[in-house]
Amino acid sequence: MATGVNRRPLRAMAARRVVRAGISPESSSKLTSCQTQIRSAKSTLPKKQKALPFQHSARGHWSTWPTFAAGQTVLRNHKPCSAPEERSAGNEQALLTIPKPHHLEQLESYLRKELQTLDLTKGISQELKLQPYREIFEFFIDNFKTYKPLLSAIKKEYEATLAHQKETIRALQPLKVMVTTVSEECTQKILALQEKEKVEINTLKQEKLHLLKFIDNMKEEKSSLQTQVERLQMSVAEEYTRYLQECGARKLLLAKLNDMHNEREQMNMKQPKVEVDKGEDVVKLTLALKMARQDLTKAQVKLNKMIADYGDVVPRRDFESLEKKYSDLLQEMETVRKDFDQLHEEYGTLLEIHKETAEDRDSFFTRLQEAERSHTPRPNWAKCSEAIPGGEERWDRLAKGKSSSQLVDVLLEEIGTGVLKEMNAFRGWGKGDKVPVYLRYEGEVKNKKPTKKDVVNILRDIWKEKTALDQQTGKRSSLPEFFLSYLQKKHGDVSAMEWSYTLYEYMRLCPSNHVMSSFYEILTGKVAEEQYHSQNQLISDLQKELAACDSSSSGSLPSEQFRMVLTEAFPLKRRDAIQELVDASRFSLDSDDDLIDYRSLFKEDEEGNPEPFVAKLRSQYVSEKQEYLQELKNSLGAVTEVDADDLKAAFRRIDPEINDQTLDTYISLAYQVRRKQPDQEVVPVDAILERLRVGDVRRVGPSPRKESTTDLEGD
Predict the structure, then answer these.
(1) Residue from 68, 69, 67, 73 nearest 87 by CA
(2) Which helix (H) or strand (E) holds 426?
(3) Which residues contact 142 (CB under 8 A, 6 or more apart)?
(4) pLDDT at position 276, please?
(5) 8 Å CB contact between 517 and 507
(6) What Å distances lie between residue 212 and 346, 356, 525, CA to CA?
(7) 354-380: per-residue pLDDT in tens?
(8) Long-range contacts of 206-215 (CB under 8 A, 24+ apart)
(9) Region of residue 92 (left: phi > 0; alpha: psi -120 to 50; beta: else)
(10) Which DSSP string corresponds to 30-66?
(11) 452-458 — which CB contacts under 8 Å span 24+ positions?
(12) I need a surface site. Which of 105, 484, 570, 620 has the fewest CB within 10 A?
């Protein structure tokens, strides 16, 4: 058995640590600080030492301290008659007198120094802590030549097991990311459902309160009408009683008149005959008396008849007034009865609605409780500031005004760009015809490792050079070819391909950056270049209109004037879209401030990220285009293929004010031809919509559906 410790060069030992521990290159840089102390610790171990006290015994076995020492002590102090407790106490006393082997003390001292020099607060502390134990084990393997094959096999199996476990952990990382993404999507869906249910519940509560108030008002009105009916009934009863009393009084009066008349006749008959004057004719007076009595009888009969016939009759004026009053009361009672029946029906309907609303409320409450029990808590996004370069300040700037889904995209970009910076080279795509011209290269391509700011500046310079060239030549050049020629002119053929691969990977991994994403979509053919220039022209025209309305050139406008400028600049936008732009312009302002600094709305940071106002303008541009194409698809109906004439008719139906030049441009784009009259071929609708989605297609005039809706609202 070798008795010394082999001393290896420090640089080879560090390399062996990196390879055997499976530590990444950037993790190995963290071990550099410990190498100086390791060198000083190793210098204390001599190259060769004398034979240790626990060398091979006479039988060929190597000693194992303290077991060997304890055994020797027992043999020297053995007393046959002593108790086991006494023998064990003597053995412990003897064990304390025998020192450890010098070789074991050196190895333990070396291990303690190695562990003290390590920084165990880092993320790879366990791997750093394991490395000194590996070296001690290697010292054993190198020194004990007899057991070296067995110890090497044991070490190899442990290293293989550790490597397998690391590969398993590395393979599970995408699954962890996927679980996190699915959890976030579920969280968003639950929150959206909660918000939707909250709005519906609030609406139902308000409607319920409104209906309850309406029912209370109807009850009060019903009580008032009932009171009026009772009063009218009492009034009619009083009038009827009064009429009965008057009828009885008239009948009594008539009887009294008859009695008085009879008494008068009897008195006349009992009176003595008056002597007739000698100067008058008795016959004439007798005849006159007879005629007078006949007239009196006729008058009495006529009077009695009239009294009998018209004793219960009232004056026409009173009758007409009472009849009118009665008809009015009857009509009012009919109206009140109809209203009462209608209120009774509405009351029954409201009871049913209230019952359904109560059932829906209970159902929503149950679903809400289930959602509260099963929902996932929102992540603490503030923790990301610890892992993002730039700290809390940069993370606040990146996360400003973004949703959880957008924050996940930001994190993916930061992770992707971080991995991209660690790569030293890219693998070439080859030189096939299907490979883009700016990526045709075989072999490895060096990674230039620029910053986002450098990439944005390069892409802006490319746009500037290409715009100048297009204005000079009078025609629009191909962006992929100009991209490659620009890099070759700027950096040479070899470096141009390195820059091309580097810029391509950065643009692919940064979809949230408008400069990179727009350049990448146009470069790969997903979007036509006209759409990029159209958006820039739209923003430029809006800046000019805002500056024209600012008579004082202060850079600020009142919110109402700002809204009017937006309405005039975008006459086809709906009110809610204009309100979204106004809200985006006030994103960074106080709610009490009525002035809007329109110049700051068009600024960009050093990485090319615009303000929320410009971002909202671009997102509305894309959504309006998608809505326009969806209307075109609905106008075409259920057909799967369409020719140029039918497509023109569909465009004119959804956009009546479209001119012939714009229509020919859209038709040429849909059928991939450059002349005015495309071939009368039939093309699938999906292919046409996909081609139009790539190009710059937008509405020219107001939608007929929107105009009809406005007319109905006006009527």
Answers:
(1) 73
(2) strand 425-427
(3) 2, 6, 148
(4) 44
(5) yes
(6) 12, 15, 61
(7) 999 999 888 888 888 887 777 666 677
(8) 207/357, 208/354, 208/357, 211/350, 211/353, 211/354, 214/350, 215/347, 215/350
(9) alpha
(10) TTHHHHHHHHHHHTTS-S--PPPTT-B-TTSPBP-TT
(11) 452/417, 452/506, 452/510, 452/513, 452/607, 452/608, 453/606, 453/607, 455/503, 455/506, 455/507, 455/516, 456/513, 456/515, 456/516, 456/606, 456/607, 456/608, 458/499, 458/503
(12) 105
Q: How many CB atoms lie within 10 A of CB 643?
A: 14
The whole-angstrom separation of Cα 405 and Cα 416 is 16
Contact (CB, 8 A) for 653 and 693: no
φ/ψ of 495, rounded to 5, equals -65, -25
Ranges of the chain whose pLDDT falls below 70 = 1-98, 120, 122-124, 271-280, 375-378, 401-402, 587-593, 673-680, 705-715
Whole-angstrom distance, CA of residue 16 vs CA of residue 31: 12
For the four alpha carbons of 400, 406, 412 and 413, in that order, the dihedral sign comes to: negative
Cα–Cα distance, 509 to 417 (Å, whole number): 7
Mean pLDDT, the chain, whole residue set: 78
What's the pTM? 0.47
Rounded Cα distance between 482 and 467, Å, is: 11
3-state secondary structure of 430: strand
Residue 205's nearest CA partner among 370, 360, 372, 367 is 360
Strand pairing report for 641-642 and 595-597: unpaired
For the residues of 60-84, what is the DSSP string, one character each? SPBP-TTHHHHHHHHHHT--TTS-H
CA pair distance 527, 525, nearest whole angstrom: 5
Phi then psi for residue 430, to 5 deg, are 100, -175
pLDDT of residue 191: 92
pLDDT (tens digit per residue) in 674-714: 544 445 578 888 888 888 888 888 888 887 765 544 443 44
Residue 367 has a CB neighbour count (10 Å cut-off) of: 13
Q: Cβ contacts of residue 57 below 8 Å, gap of 6+? A: 63
The residue whose two tokens read 């979007």 is: 527
Quote the percentage of the chain above a pLDDT of 90: 12
Residue type for 670, please?
A: A
